[in-house]
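Pipeline run #58 for the internal structure catalog. This entry was flagged by the ingest filter as a single-chain record with no existing model, so it goes straight to prediction. Upstream metadata was stripped on purpose; only the residue string is passed forward. Reviewer on rotation: M.T. Logging verbosity set to normal.
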Amino acid sequence: MAAVCCAGEWLVMSSSHYLLAVDIKENREPFVFDCTKAEQKPEESDTDKCDGGGSQEKGSDLILALALSPSGRYVALTDDNKRLILFRTEPSWQCISTRWVVRRCTSLVFTRAEDELLVADKSGDAYSFSVLEPQKPGELKLGHLSMLQAIALSPDDKYIITADRDEKIRVSLSKSSYNIQAFCLGHSEFVSVLCVPDGHPEWLLSGSGDGTVKLWHYESGRQLQSIGLQQWGMSQGSDTDSDKPQRFAVSRIISSPDGRHVAVQCESFPSIQLFAVEEGSDRLLIPTETIDLPQNPWDMTFDPQGRLWVLLQNKDTNVLLYTHRKKCWQSESESPDLQKVSEKLRTQWELFKDSVGMESRFKHLYKVNFDNMASYLEKKKERLQQQNKQGGKKRAACQSNGAAKKSKA
């Protein structure tokens, strides 16, 4: 999968094992980083391998997660080789450290103070890495009993919010993360994304494999609103078998810098649902419009001006730009910024080819239901049939032996 986010004037994208940064305003060369050429982990001794907790198999250099600091000064990524790579974007792009994590990671987030980077991994643990000391190893912050899917922070860095495969959202104190402030419970499938919207520091938005977006007051764990996206997804015309239940995994939730708009993206659907934030009303998020796209989007992001950028899986139409004007979202197809970025992406399209048509990252996270009773009854029926056959053979053999004895007599 490819991802996109905005760091100041830079549009930062990841695809396969590449990181690409394109300047929106100035016409300068993009920054490209190839994870296959990144620093390799030193060979460990047999003693170290026995003591270490992580598996030692070689990864694929595929970028698994990407994060930007609030000011856009720092960018971090983690890949399938368990590397955590930190970049500085000012005054120019520079890789400042390469560190290693224990398990493959799923989500990253910077603190508002930009002094720490929190990393969530597949074993359910969250680690803290120093930004100011870029060579310092990570420290374990907290752990779940299930794979972590997303991690977020409250705007004051007071709370760490983590979400896992078992539908739980946990709110922990940052300074003493063994103290749990609240749980936000209500999803029926894995929680895929978290977002604390700008301008509303007490809110938390969560998306799930159950096809819903929920709004929480995370400090108390109270659910404020639940929005089902199934109807929105079905209206787009899915190609799946109509006899099978359709699944709608929310893959991205973002808020505009002014906190007035929220955009939601579902995996494998060529559309984006927009919401307006209405304070003081019963419906806190008001659905406003659906942007239909020419094909399935990879990812989306807001820039500092509140414009919505959408990254598509197409070389010719690789990115779209929308601006909110006159109470609706309008396409900016003639924007010089859009044309500049689109041309840069065409020249770098080789970096995105491996991400086209990539398998869903949520495919193996859904619950699997087993009808044990039906299987038991079927096996019981087969067993009884087998016993009846064996009993018939025994009776036939007894009758044959009895006839033979009479004949001899």
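catalog note: The longest strand covers residues 285-292.
catalog note: The first helix runs from residue 46 to 51.
status: ready for reviewer M.T.
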